[in-house]
Amino acid sequence: MGRSIGERPVSFGGEYFHRLSNRHYRVADGVMLRYQLDGQKQRINEIEKRVDFAIGSGNHAVTYVHRTEQGRLLELPLSWYRTLNGWGMSPGYDSPVHQDMRREISDACLFCHAAYPVSREARARPKSIDCARCHGGAQAHLKRPEKGTILNPSRLPAARQLEVCLQCHLETVSQGIADSFRQPGREVFTFRPGESLESYKVYFDRADAAEPRFEVNHAGYRMLQSACYRKSSGKMTCTTCHDPHTARARNACADCHALVKHTRQVDTNCAECHMAKRATNDAPHVTMTDHWIRVKPVEPKADHTAYPGPVISFYTKADVDTLAMANIRTPNAEAVAIYEKRLAKDGKDIGARAALANTLLRLGRRDAAVAEAERVLRLEREHVGALLTLGVARAMAGDHAQALAAFERARRANPDHALIWLNLGVTHAAMGKRDEAERAFREAIRLQPDFAEARQRLAELGR
Asked: What is the residue extent of each domain of the chain?
């Protein structure tokens, strides 16, 4: 954990061609370049991003991050993989359509990779995970370094000990559904060891069989389904096997199992047979230990199909309204009512309010959508989603000048967002500004070469 953030830019280079998306990449002098080739083998759609820091210890992989002028963090498309001793596409990027140089790293993602930030501004310059993640605040201990001045997790009840680990090592699914929601009023970096994980957030899972899915952050998820855990009456925790300070694991199986069917040896490693190492479904070139402990492990198969079924609670217990919000699939009147119930509990839930604004817009309730978007912007002045909703609502009402102002404001907040440039182009075209429209559409294509609508709009301009 102390190596979760690498503060020095990448010091080595290389080239990589991603055939699925037809994009070339080059890394040199701490900069990552992306380009394509036209019919004459000339470079087009070039984008260059500085590598500011890295995420990952290097035990499996290292992913690189760019910090924008606005302080946003972008996950770069190439990662270094230990198994390859070289470059490959970052997790989630190995497909014909991906987010390339535009994928923003949210606070929720950063939570499990970085130390608690000392200020909001410090979130753009994260540090490696430190002692506070497991031991809580260390100020008193630093002033008086003795027993009793800092939290010792081993003195917590077993469930709270386990949840010190699960705060980061429990993810039910990495895509397709929301795997968790924070409780009303809880900010991202507010969980502290010793409190109930359920007081911080609730988790969800797909209602189908868990077996086909095996993902990079599935250690806690798979362990909780093991008979060893379920029959331990809650006594089994991650530190039953793992030393939290060294990452070494001991063979704890003999504590409960007599090994009758085996020749008992001091160096018996039960995990080799009962916790096999497997390739993960969601991260390429990565092999992890499957923590679903079984007599005869089953080989999970990759499952990349969209999941259309219901979402259920997992480990924690979500109330009816929160579970209903996790199950929203389409913008309808029921979704509006669900978001409104959530906001009645937590009026500062920016995500729920922005989703409500977008849902109202899709239902044709423009005035209500504008009102909600403006409420979001009072909470977060440059919320790009709310600015897009506001701009589209103004354009639908025929107020192109106000629409343009909203989209320009969004562009200043996030110039890497291809959809903003598309909307700028559409608005300029509606105002008869064909040159400005062309420039906006071309920028949308440069940022996102597979953006079919931007290409279609450009063609309609005759350019």
From this structure: 5-124, 151-289, 323-460
